[in-house]
Amino acid sequence: MKRFCLTLTAAALCTAGASSYAENDFTIYGKANLSLNDVEEQSKSPKVDEWQLNSNASRLGVKGSYKINDALKAIYQMEFEVHIDDGESSSSKGKDTFEQRNIYAGFSSDYGTLIAGKHDTPLKLAQGKVDRFNDQLLGDIKHYMEGEDRVKNIVMYSTPTMSGFTASAAMIAGEDSSGSSEKNGLSDGVSLSLNYKNDWLSAAVARNDDVDSQDTTRVMTDFTLGNTKLGLLWQEAEKVDGSADEDSWLVSATQDLGSGWLIKGQYGKTDYSNSSEDEQMVFGVDKKLNKQSKVFAYYANIERFDGSKSVDDSSFAVGYEIKF
């Protein structure tokens, strides 16, 4: 009887979802990205040397909009990371399969878009697709570069596109009036970006002030020349208290070989004010099976130098991605 009731409930939810879709722009979407990684991380204590199955920011979400009137739409998105490999959220100590990603509600009109919730900062979004190994273990630039922040309590406005240009501005409330940081204002953190895009070029300049205790400036450009893409990113980050700073840069490329084959690689480096440095090298190959799925393989290495000695973190992986 219990199974029968559950089946009826599921059917009712699906029917309601189909009805909502008919009336509004309503979409359920997701992505499964699984890889089998041979991982060696000498920088960890204790050192890691093992095979891992990784979920690589697999996700499930719902997004949509509906008309309030002829000039204004309500918009929303609720997206969660799904830990397919072991069901353990990195922030919940193994208790939850789901972890919050971009979740917001807001409004959109001819004058732009306003959202509030938890979301990637304009500076993070300014990277575009120049990180060719985004979300991959040791391949993502977040493993050696600041600025890859998804923050809570964000209010963000984005302009409409004007001759290829867009701009975004975000305020981040600290909500910490009782803490030692005394962050109790509407805009304890600020993130801004100016972006440009046409058929063969994407470019952006962005700035964070006191986001994750960092002041950060980022410049990105990504060219498309036939079947080749070449990306460049430069960044400077400084601790708000002035205790440390770092300079980072990245160059990346992809080459479409046809028949669904794509080769790609990237090289980047961060120099720290304490004379240490991180140096990343990644290369890989994708084979697209159709518009929604691919298989891939890559090798990533990050050499970490602390001023007196260097250690290597590396990963060789094979995997697949399915979008729906």
Automatic annotation (TrEMBL):
Any one of the GO BP annotations: monoatomic ion transport
Q: Which residues form the signal peptide?
A: 1-21
Alphabetical GO CC annotations of the entry are: cell outer membrane; pore complex
Q: Where is the Porin domain?
A: 10-303
**InterPro entries hit by this protein:** Gram-neg_bact_OMP, Gram_neg_porin_domain, Porin_dom_sf
Q: What is its main location?
A: membrane
Q: Where in the cell is it found?
A: Cell outer membrane
Q: Where are the transmembrane segments?
A: none
List GO molecular-function terms, semicolon-separated: porin activity
The alphabetized UniProt keywords are:
Cell outer membrane, Ion transport, Membrane, Porin, Signal, Transmembrane, Transmembrane beta strand, Transport
How does it sit in the bilayer? Multi-pass membrane protein
Q: Carries keyword Transport?
A: yes
Instruction: Describe its partners and assembly state.
Output: Homotrimer.
Family annotation (PANTHER family)? MAJOR OUTER MEMBRANE PROTEIN P.IA, PROTEIN YDDL-RELATED
The name this protein goes by in its record: Porin
Which organism is this entry from?
Sediminihaliea albiluteola
Taxonomy of the source species:
Bacteria, Pseudomonadati, Pseudomonadota, Gammaproteobacteria, Cellvibrionales
